[in-house]
Amino acid sequence: MNNLRRLLRRESVFKVVFILAFAFGLMGGFFALFLDAFRFLSALGGASFMITRRLFSLFFLGLGVMLALSNIVTSYSTLFRSRETSFLLTSPVDIRSLVTYKYLESTLLSSWAFLFLIIPFTAAYTLHEELGLIFAFWTAAFSIPFVLLCGGLGTLIALLAVRWMPRGRLFRIGAIAAVVALTLRPLLDFRPVNLQDQPSFVLNRLLPGLQLASHPLAPNHWSAEGILLLSGGDFARGGMFWLTLVANTLVLALLIQWLGTRTFFPAWQRVAGEGGARRRPAELLGWLQPALRFLPHDIRGMILKDIRAFLRDPLQWSQALIFFGLLAIYFGSFRSFRYDALPDVWRNLIVFLNIFSVASVICSLASRFVFPQLSLEGHSFWILGLAPTGMRRILITKFLLAATAIILVSASLMGLATWMLQVGPALKAISIGLAVAISLAVSAMATGLGAIFLDLKQPNPVAIISGFGGTMNLALSLGLMLTSILPFGLLWHWHLQGRISDTVFVRGNLAAAAWLGILTLLATVIPLWLGARSLARREY
Amino acid sequence: MIHVQQLDKSFGAVHAVRNLSFDVPAGELFCFLGPNGAGKTTTIKMLTGLLRPDRGVIRIGGHDIAADPVAAKTIMGYIPDMPFLYEKLTPVEFLKFIADLYNLRDPATPRRIQESLLSFGLGEARSALIGDLSHGMRQRLLYIATFLHNPRVVFIDEPLIGLDPHSIRMIKDLLRQKVRGGMTILLTTHILALAEEIGDRIGIISNGTLIALGRMDELRRQAGVEGKLEDVFLKLTSEDTGTPTQGGARPMLSIPN
Fold first, then answer.
1. To the nearest whole angstrom, how far is the Cα of A385 from the nearest Cα of chain B?
2. Which domain holds residue B117?
3. B52 and B85 share one domain
C-alpha cells in the first residue's frame, strides 16, 4: 500500500487517470463484446444453450494454456536471467524459498492479462445467465488457485527444460522446427470455407474443443463446473471441485519446491556457464550484410543489429512465437464456420469483424515489439548518440524496420483471411489497403511515442509497454484502427441493407479512402516528427 | 583540436561545470583530473555531444559540436568508464556494426577487425556474446571499436578500469603511439601515476571549475609543492575544497558493527 501511495504521489494525476480510464475502458469493451457473443449464441437457439454453458469451461482452458505458456517464458527470465537471483544466491536465502518466491513472482507478472479477461467475461456471463453477484465471488475463489496451478505448470516446465534439455545444435534446430511446425499446424488445413466441404453443422466442428474443455481431469473443468455449482447452491459438489483444485495446486507447489531444491542451482550454473561454452558462428545471418548493401551503411548496421539482438533474446522471440501460435489457432477456427451459407449482411459483418481482428493484432504487435525498441537500446544508447548519424535518421531506421515487418505480417494475414472467407476483389482490396495503412500508422505511432517516452533504464520490455507511454500508444492505436475501419464498415453494411444507393456507396468509398489516406499520413508524420524532436532534445 | 570556451552546465540546483575554458592542440595527450563529482564525466559528455551545455562553445577539429554534430562526431571517438555494449552481439558483429555506423567502406575493414581482435587478445572470444565477456575484455573491445575509424580526437573516461597488467601496458603503449601519430587524446583518470607518466599536459577540475592547467613543472610551481603529481593534486584540491591533507586530522572511515 505504501508503494502504491508513493507511486500515486510521484506520477501526475493525468497519467493515473488516463491509465485507469484506459483499463476500465478496455474491460468495458471486452464486457460488451462477450455479452454480444452470448446474446448472439442465444439467438441461434438449439444447441447454443449447451455451447454457452460449456464456453465457460473453454474460456478457462484458453486462459490456462496462455498463462502456462506465458509463465514458461517469465519463469525463465525471473529465475535464470534476473540480476536479483544472482544477488539472492549470495545471501543466506535457501533455494527452496528462492524458487517459491520466483514462482509466485513470475505467476503474478504473467497473470495480469488473466484479470483483464476474466473480470469482463464473468460480468457478461453473470448478466446473461442471470446468476447474481455470488457467481463473481465464486469465480474469484476459483481463479486464484487456477492461476497458481497454471503458472506453476509453466515454472515447472521452465525448471525441467533448463536443467535437462540437451544443448546440441541439432537438438536446438529440431526443437525450434517442432515448435514452428506445431504452431503452424492449423495452416496446413487452410482452404476456403465451402458448403460442400463441411456438410455437418458448425457445432460438430466446435465439439472437439468443447469436449477437451469438459474433460473431467482438466483443472479448467473443475473451475468452471465448481463455479456454476456453487452459484447454483450445490455446495457439496461445488466445494469438492474447489478442494480438488486447491489440493492439486498445493501438490504442484510442493513439487516445484522439491524439484527446485534439487535442480535450480545446477540449472542456474548451466545457464551462467553456457555463454563461454556454446559454439556459435561469429556472425549470425552473415549473408544478410552483403544482401543489404543497397541500404546506406549506418541504416544497414542498425537493422542488422536489431534483427540479431531480437533473434538472440528468447524473451522476445518466444513471445512472438506465442503470438503467431494464437493467430494460427484463430485462422484454424475459420474452418468451423459455414460462412457461405449465411445471409449477405452477416457475411459482410464477419468480413469486417475479421478486419477488426487482424487490425487489433497489428496494434498489439506494434505495442509489444515496436514501442519498446528504442528503450531497449538501454545503456548502450550512447553508441548511437555518439555515432555520426542524426537522431532523426536513427528514428526513421527503427520505423522502416518495424513498418516493413508489420506490413508483411498484416498484408499476408489479411490476404489469407480474405481468401479463406472468399471475399470479392473490391472488399479484398479495401481489406488489404486498410491493413497496410494501419500498419504504417501504428508503426510510426509506436516508434514516435517510444522515442517520446524513452526509458533507457528499464531492460524489461513488458515493463516498458505497461507504463504510461505504452498504454497511451495502445489506446491511440486502437482509436486509429476504429476510425480507419468504421467508415468502410458502415458504408458496406448500409449498402447491403439497402439504406444507401449505389452512387452514394461508390462516392462514400472514395471519401472513406481519402479519409484513410489523410489519417494515415497524419498518424505517420506527426508522431515521427515529435519523436525525432524529443530524441534530439534529450541528453544521454 | 579541442576548443572549449566558457562552458557551463547545471543539473537542477547542482552547478556541475562553471565557466570552463581550455584548448588542446593536435597530437597532445591531455589528462583531466579531479575528485569524485568534480565535473570530469559531465565535461567529457558535453565534449562528445551526449550532454548539451547550458552555455559555452565546444569545437572539435574546428566543428562546433552543437551546430554541426555529425561532422564533429565523424572525427571523434569516446571510451566511457563503464563499457555498456550490445550484449546480444558477438565482438565481430559489434565491430561490423560500428564500421557501418561510421561508414567505413574500405574493403580491408573485415581484415582489420580480425587482426585487431587477435592483437587485443580477443581472438578466441570473437564468437562469444558480449554479455558473456569480462569487464576487461569488453573494455578492450571498446578500444578496438573506438580506433576502428581512425578518429582524430579521442575522449577516454578512466582508461584502465578493469584491465589486467598486460592490458594496461598495452593500452599505455597504444595511447602513446596514437599521440605520436597525431591523434589528440583527452582522458580523465583517478590514477595520478598514469597521468604523470603519459600526460603531456594536465588540467585539474574541482567543484566544476578548472583550478590548474599546465605541464607537470608548471603545476608544481602553481601548487608550491615539489614531488609527485599526487602531492600536487592533493594540495591544489584541498585548497579548493578546504579538506585538510597535511597536519590536519583525516576523517576516519568506519563501518558500524
1. 6
2. 81-180
3. no
